Amino acid sequence: MAIIDVVKYDGNDNEFVWKFPSENLRLGTQLVVKQSQIAFFVKGGQILDPFECGTHTLHTGNIPILHKIINIPFGGDTPFQAEVWYVNLISKLDNKWGTPTPIQMEDPKYGIVVPVRAFGQFGLKISEPRLFLESLVGTIKVYTADKIVEYFTGKIISSITTTIGKKIVLENVSVLQMPAILDDLSKLSENAIKDEFAKFGIEIVNFYIMSINIPENDPSVIKLKEVKEKAMYLKTVGKDVYSFDRSMDVLNTAAGNEGNAGNLMGAGMGLGMGLGIGGNMGNQMGNISEKVNTNLQQNQNNTPPPPPMIQFFVFTNNQQQGPFDIQQLQLMINQGTLQKETFVWKQGMQNWDKAENQQELQLFFNQVPPPPPI
User: How far out from the chain centre does Cα 207 lie?
Assistant: First the structure.
C-alpha cells in the first residue's frame, strides 16, 4: 500500500469516533486535527499519543511514546505502521429516546395500575476521549451517536421508571398529573443517569422528558378517571351526602327491577322506607342537608345558597318514586295519579304520611272537583 502523506477527518455531527482507513504512515506525514476533534495513535490495541486541534508534522519529537514502541530510527522519512483514531468533541443535542413498551405503573392516589409511555431527547458530548475509546468503542471503526443511544437505552428507561415511581409515591402525585411536572421529572432523570454515562467518558448536556402518554381507551385508564371523578365529588359534597346518593341509586335500581324478585325487592324497600326506616331517614336527611349547605357555601366563595326546594317522595304501586317538586305534584293531583290517601314523604318528616295531611298539597286537593254524579 502507498505511504500516506496527509491524515485528516472531515467528520459529521453524528459520528463520534472514526478510524483512519490506512496504517501506512511515515515520518513527515501531515496530521490534520480540526476544531472540536482530537486524534490518538493506537498500536497493538494500546492508545498512545493524543493530538489536539492543529496541523502536526509527524517526527520522533512529537510522537515519543510511539517512537519507543516501534523503535523508529531518528531522522529521514522512515515508514511505520500505526492506527489513527479521531474522536469528535461536539455536543449533539437531538438524541431521541422513548419507552419501547408501556411501563406498568401503579397510581399512588387511587391504587390502579395503568400503562405509561414516555418520550424525550437528550444532548451529549465526549468529555474524556481516551476513556471513551478504551471502555466503549473497541474495534468498531465508526461509532455514532445512534450507537451510544442504543447502548444506553436500557439504562435510561430503568432510571426514568425508578425516578418517576419515587416522585409520584413520595409526593402522592397521580399518574394523570404527571404531564404537569415534566420539568421536575426531567431534572431528576438527568441526575439519575449522568453518573452512568460519565463512567464511559460521556457528559449529558441536557435531558428532557417531552411527553408522558397514557392510552385514553385503556380499561385501567378509564377506571382510574372514574375513580378520580368520584373522589372529587366526595371531596366536594362530603362523605354523608355521597353515601346517601349511593344508597338512593341502589333503591331506585331495585325498585325499577321487573319480575318477582324485582317486585319483592321494590315493595320491601318501599315499605321499609315507610314503616321501618322513615324516622332514621328524616334524621339523616336533616344532618346531610346542613353539610350540603356548608360545602356548597365554601365552594361558591361564601355565596348564600338559594332557598331549599320542597320535594316529596311518593309511594304508589308498591314502589317509591320521586322526588317530585310542587309543580309536578300538582299535575299528578290534577291527573288523578296522586290521591289523598297516597303516602308521601319529604325531608324533615319522621314517617310516611297521607298526601291529604300535607299543608303544601291540601290546597291542590281542594281545587280538584269531586267525581261527577252517576
Answer: 18
